[in-house]
Amino acid sequence: MAFGCWVGVFVLLSVWPSVRCSDLPRGAIETACRDRYLLVTTQLSFAGNKPRFEAVDADGVHPITKQYGSECGYMFSILPLRGHAELRASYFSCHTDNQDDEVFTFSFNLITIDANGVEATYSVTATCSLPLPWSPREVSCEENYMEVSMRSDVSCLSGTTDAWTAALAKAHSSATSTWQVMFQQEGQQLIPMSFSEARELGYVFHLTRGDWCSAHPTHHVVEVVHPILLSRQRWVVMMVDWIVACSTNEGMYDGAGLVWQTPTLLSPLVSGLSGLESSKISMGVDGQLLDEPITAERGYSLDISDTTVQISIPFNAAGGYRKSFVMDNMYHEFYVVHLYYEQIFLDDCGVETRLRLHRPMNTPLLIQHLSIINQTVLEDRVFTVYLGNLYYDVDLVAVTLNGHNFTILDATKSGRVITMVPRPNSNLHAYILRLPFEDAAVHKLVKRNIYGLLQFVILPQEEPYYYLASVVAQFNDVFPPVFKGVCNERSIRFQMDHKPFDYLWEVGVGPYILNSNLAAKRGYIMQNDSKSLTLEVPLFSVGYTYKDIHLKQFYGSFEIHSRLPKTLEVKSSLAKACLFQTTEVIVCSTEGVVTVVTDVTLAIPGAEPNGTFLLDSTCRPQETDGTRVLFSFGLHSCGTRVDHQHVTYENEINVAHKSQSVNAPFSFRIIVRCVYPLSDLYKLFAYWRFEADSPGVGTILTRVPVKTLPPTTLTTTRRPLTSTTTSNTGLSPGRQMPGINPRAKYVKVFSWQMNQPKGTT
């Protein structure tokens, strides 16, 4: 940092910075005395985005521009990642008050600009005592300049070189009483020049009060600068061989972290000496050296070989700084480390040279992807998703899950928990999203799924960033519910024992979900508790199908199934068929066949079942017994009549009977009617074919004669009916008569029948 002579013992003094300010807010500016410079920081939140400094001395104020800072020992930078501006001022900077090269007093003006463009000026002073004695030779490599100092009382000689001999001859012939400088460059002639001439080339020399001289050669791409200072004092020519060397390696990113290298021996630091050795190497960040335990904890590595020193700092290690930003909706980051390096050399005479180096290093722009970790425990029935790792300047503000949008505040109100989780000992944080499986935003398939669009903002500019993620809760060895069916005398009873994952499916009857509303509407008896689901379905309820109908018995079957809620794909089913005793039945099938069993003696006591026939008298019953008949016929046969308006098919069971009193024949007729929805019929009239998607609704009515002898006037009466909600099987309305068991029951099919005109069923 400087050049001069001294004799005596150096004492390590304490550091006592002091700050004076004019209307300076508390905590807005801080100072710290380091080994060889003063550090001044100010918060950008206070100073604005473009603060600047001025050095103040007895001659006035001196703006610290980029050029002036490199000439006079100042390094000023604005560091948005840390949120502050920083000034490093060398102890031998141009306008510093130097007391015997041990006490240094600084005075600055801080100029701030607010959002309205209004400037404010604050004065800051600080005093530092030398915290560490000067080494015989010191070299400081700053970002924008190099600084060197050397003690002149070193008398050890280890030989001379041809270059030194030539420089000595030139000094004897050219030295004056005023200090001059020659720059030794290979292949070029030595030319003495004044300090002012050297300044025009970018080299600044300052004599201190203690006869120290500090040099600040501007640091461009120069790695080695070799100045020789000379002066003639009467008969004595004083010549000082100065040489400064700094590594210009800016570091590199190797995919895992930042790597910086330098030669183990910078031999030009000691001119003409042999046996130069490196005795100690240390590293740190932000101008402070770190102990080995701390560097090991942070993951730093320092590898030293005979030729090369290599320092590696992992990406995102403590001591560095990350910055997030958005480009084309891609999340980018870069990582910056301000490396501080110190190396001590010893020559053959034991003379120490201390090298200090400041080097900012940064990664290229890196595309980052969020870490999405599915931490869901299936038994908890809650999605638990870890979203990270994010730098401190990224905030999650909104989430879209399977089309459901909500902010973080909305999530808390609706039971969707989103928690920010800081990571210890780092500037990173993450979020944990908790969402119950039963939430409306969850797709309830065999595997539960959430597909999310996450909205972040990058602070402080609040750039939006969106990220897509999908999380699935996969259930292994999970099977659909299992049903058991039991036949009762007039019903079928189903039971399903609940298992942990039954909620993945829904129970259905036909296309409808089985719930309490459906059960009440159709007359089902349902019980559902935490252990099991029980469903009792009375005979002739909606959902039954029938086959093998005979006078004595027939089969009635009912199907219940489980399916996927999203696709309605049936995964398991149970169709239970039971054998029931036949009383009175009418079935209007989808194939256009009417099957009816009725007791003719209920209309005409003493009637003969064998004597019954339909409108076409050739159509006789398939089966009879003492009271009942069984007819089965097509809708386009046996004289069946059709009402095109309502698609109603009607036929009659005629019973021949003679009155005991007048000995005249009476005609008793039982009307059989099937009604189909018009939308269910295809090619009905053109081809005499019948196709229906659902069974029709059947009724049985009785016509009773009023007078004897033709012409006979008849009135139509409907048998007493007991009505219950039943299936689309086409079973006829039943009859409830005193002293007689219930006969066929009334059956409805879905909602279309509700819209039929009165009297059509």
Automatic annotation (TrEMBL):
Top-level taxon of origin: Eukaryota
Annotated stretches, region: Disordered: 711-740
Keyword Signal among UniProt keywords: yes
Low complexity bias: start-end ranges: 711-733
Entries under PROSITE patterns matching the protein: ZP_2
Signal peptide residues on this chain, from the entry's feature table: 1-21
The entry's keywords: Signal
Entries under InterPro entries matching the protein: Ig-like_ZP (IPR058876), ZP-N (IPR055356), ZP_dom (IPR001507)
Limits of the ZP domain: 587-761
A Pfam family reported for this protein in Swiss-Prot or TrEMBL: ZP-N
Protein name per Swiss-Prot or TrEMBL: ZP domain-containing protein
Species per Swiss-Prot/TrEMBL record: Oncorhynchus tshawytscha
